[in-house]
Amino acid sequence: MKPKFQDKYRVESLRLPNRDYAANGWYFVTICTRDRTCFFGDVVAEKIQLSDIGQIAQQYWAEIPSHFEHTDIDTYIIMPNHVHGIVVIDRPPNVETRNFASLQSEETNKFGPLKPGSLQAVIHAYKASVTRWCRKNSQEHFSWQPRFYEHIIPADDSIDRIREYIANNPFKWEDDKDNPENLWM
């Protein structure tokens, strides 16, 4: 049996243990609402119709680059109960000196505070901002699933497949495993 922390079982991280998620890279991210509740809207005639919360989720997602230096947003979609998006972290190369100690600080905080500019920090801030808006606007019932899923996009042609997957998500909603109507599929 796994040990408990604060009377809860510890759940292992989904992140790669030796990956620096503040490093340059393209990340395909999926963030879900708690219990897959459709807070963001509905798909009607294969088009997403966003609710007020969905519109805020979309607005705040698009604003991520203005809050995080060296971070950009590629293709994304807000679905009824989840967000799919590609987050790009692209920092300039570090300046190092020859034959001297590094000028760059080694930030390794596996279990500590979020590393500034990391994928986790970006997603945490996004989720917190949407949640804060919901609380201020009498949407107290809104909540996120505690974690998020990410896939590091390799430097090959998979980016086009992922973009296509994101763009086609509303067309596949009827058969999507995240669609609450398909709970017993």
TrEMBL record:
Task: Describe the location of the Transposase IS200-like domain by residue ranges.
Answer: 22-169
Coiled-coil regions listed = none
Cite the InterPro entries for this sequence: RAYT_transposase (IPR052715), Transposase_17 (IPR002686), Transposase_17_sf (IPR036515)
Q: Could you tell me which SMART domains the record lists for this protein? A: Y1_Tnp
One GO process term, biological-process aspect: DNA transposition
The Gene Ontology terms for molecular function here are: sequence-specific DNA binding; transposase activity
PANTHER family given in the database record: REP-ASSOCIATED TYROSINE TRANSPOSASE
Query: What is the name of the protein in this document?
Result: Transposase IS200-like domain-containing protein
Say which species the protein is native to: Chlorogloeopsis fritschii PCC 6912
State the taxonomy lineage.
Answer: Bacteria, Bacillati, Cyanobacteriota, Cyanophyceae, Nostocales
